[in-house]
Amino acid sequence: MPTHREPALRTIGFRKAFGDHVAVDDIHLTVPAGSFYGLVGPNGAGKTTTLAMAVGLLRPDAGSAEIFGVDVWRDTVQAKGLIGVLPDGNAMPERLTGREVLTYLGLLRGIPHDTVAERTDELLQVLELDTAERTLVIEYSTGMRKKIGLAVALLHAPRLLVLDEPFEAVDPVSAATIRTILRRFTGGGSVIISSHVMALVEQLCDHVGVISDGRVVAAGPLADVRGAGTLEDAFVDLVGARTGGTEGLAWLTS
Amino acid sequence: MAHLLTPGPAAMAKLMIRMRLTLMRNSLGGDDAANLYTGVSVGLILAAGTIAVAVLWPAYLPLALAGWLSGWIFGPILIGGGNETLRPEYFAMLPATPRRTAAALLAGAFAGPAPAANLIALLSLPVYGWRHGPAGVLIGLVAAVITLITMVMISRVVVALIGLFVRSRATAATVGVATGTAIALCSNGWAPVAALGGDTAAWSHHLVRALPSGWGVAAIEAPWPLALAILAANAGLIALLLASWASLLSRRVVSAARGGVPPRRGAPRPLPTAGGARVSAAKELRAWWRDLVRIQLLGTAFSFALVFPFLLVTLDAWIMVPFTGLIAIVMAAASSANLYGADGTALWLTLMTPGAERADVRGRQLAWFLIVGPAAIALSLAGTLVSGELWAWPWVLGLLPALLGGGAGLIVLLAVTSLVPGTDPHKRGGNPLSTGASETAETSLAYLVLIAVPSIALPTAGAILLNPWAGVATGVLTGALSAWGLGRIAYRRLENHGTELLNLMKHGPAPQADKPTTADLPVVHRIGVTVCYLTAWLPLFPQGVVPLFMKIFGISDPSWFLALHLPPIWQWPTIIFMIATGVLMYGYAILIPMRLNSPSSATTR
Questions:
Q1: Is A95 in CB contact (< 8 Å) with chain B?
Q2: Chain B residue with the nearest C-alpha to that of A90
Q3: What is the 3-state secondary structure (H, E, C) of chain A?
Q4: Which of A57, A204, B376, B583 is at 20 to 30 A from A219, Cα to Cα?
């Protein structure tokens, strides 16, 4: 990996509290350029909050973020030109069809009309959304919403993709398609995904960061983090999990 | 072994009541609690007023009760689908028949402040019955309970019908037109009544008794056997309503929620090959055309604007007709007040697209202008021509551009400064007309627009009084400056505070322990503020501004304008007093909460 290049993303001392609850506490992450980075952690660990702050959708209480050396909160416009984002659970322009969403956002970004049309066609086709030409996004299934979100993130050919739970609710065939697209993308670009499916992260990513209770408990190349065992073993060790489910509930089988 | 026993009807009803009360208690934080207290106070005042009518002016009791009925019918439509604390969807998997679930849900529906206030109001029936002896009191008591159930049931059935059948543009527009007409009748309905011979006429006497709200009065006045027949018929109506509500609910639960999307045919037309504001406007126009809530609100705005002036024509007063288009602009602005809140978290895309904030704000202005402008201009020109009121031309030509530009500026400004968070469109429930936003907050935002848009046109009105044609120029200038300037403030704010708005929509308002909210207003002030908001228009507009213009233009028909009934020497002082009273009431209602929210008061608390 060339050391002279700026990292794709660097977060410095992120902190965010919602009322009394500290969701993210002093998070430092470095995502090397060209890497496929997996952000893992249990439910409520602060993954979504961290990613939202990293791309400029949530203002941190403290700390800063740089994308290829560009400060997200100072040079907002320049930073936004470099990234494609798939947030978890946000709305879209719901009353447009998938094609209209892509066309609208492409034109709004100032991409030439022919290019927009060409890319829209290809994205819809590859993500198998082209059969739903008359369906408004509001009527899409959860998996289709993920796919149109991914298409939006890819449309302007960004240098860094930030995807929050990109595989959630996506069927196995589409998931394989998305994996292929993302692997091709890392040929020149960088990807960050958040997930709690360890096998998937292990298979796709070359770098991982483990977050628990709003703190980074481990980060670095995949091989370093997982050590000798599987990533799942390392993860359970790191977050100090207690596997429950063996006590109580006797009436279920009586 | 699965547990197959469901509780009996009474136990299920009790559980629903407990659940509703628990939900209510859990949501009683901050503004909600204060709004509840204010609502209860206003309801109690109205209830006491109804009893007073029964004692002092018994002839008007059926009319007052008809007012309560119309509240139950149109209240839920106006505030987007009514209270749905207990959604039928929650109980879809209970192994119980639809009718039993419906009966239990109905019991839950009574566990709220509105039915309680209504019950107190209905105690006016036994009070009225006292005039007819002890039997009258007894019938009155029975009728009070039966009438309450009838009113709540009618309200539920109307909401269920809307939820199930408002699935197309035509039905959404129909609901909108019915609502707009009803509001217009509430404010100017006295005109046709007066034209038809007033409240002394036999037809109005029968009409208010024929409505379900008047059956109690009819039963009290009737001889014994007929009274019993009326009450029995009423009980039958309740059974019928319950049965139809149950079947509507079970159909609603299994019909897929479509988020208020009208059906479509054919592939959509491609977006224009433009960038910036024009492509944003194209997106926004599609949203207007494909959103049943927006179509319903537009229907309300334009039908009110059309019906309101023409009701006065029944008295041969054409004075309001030239202003049809202007009323339409103000109403349409009020119904577009929460543009960003209605789209929910879709704002993130605008924030993630470099430089899109400006295009989005300008696009929304352009789309609103294209939707409201041509219709308002056509209505203004046609109204002024048809009315034959030549004096109205400079007023219409001056105020039209001022209001159009002011509206286009204010809606985007308020959409970013006073956003009311709702539920994201794709997560809304089975009610197509509900946005999930706080109804109280949305209504006060609409009120704010109703006051703010006409205020922008005040300088124009002043200029017209001085010189008609200078007024027209002022109007054009005001409109252009407002649309440009207020839009500019709006997109600047979106650029700087967009993430805060996004998170307001995602997580609701952040709790700030030290910052006082309107909820901290003393209850007396809260009631005062609400009463002023509700009634200040009365002295200001119909009793102040309208007679002012009638005096200026020498129209002598006094109708219900107090000032014009007085000796000439008292007319001007009365008009000025009325306008001053209205302005002071609005000032009090707006300034008291603002003063409390200012930082200086926070430190002195």
A1: yes
A2: B345
A3: CCCCCCCCEEEEEEEEEECCEEEEEEEEEEECCCCEEEEECCCCCCHHHHHHHHHCCCCCCEEEEEECCEECCCCHHHHHHHEEEECCCCCCCCCCEHHHHHHHHHHHCCCCHHHHHHHHHHHHHHCCCCCCCCCEHHHCCHHHHHHHHHHHHHCCCCCEEEEECCCCCCCHHHHHHHHHHHHHHCCCCEEEEEECCHHHHHHHCCEEEEEECCEEEEEEEHHHHHCCCCHHHHHHHHHCCCCCCCCCCHHHHC
A4: A57
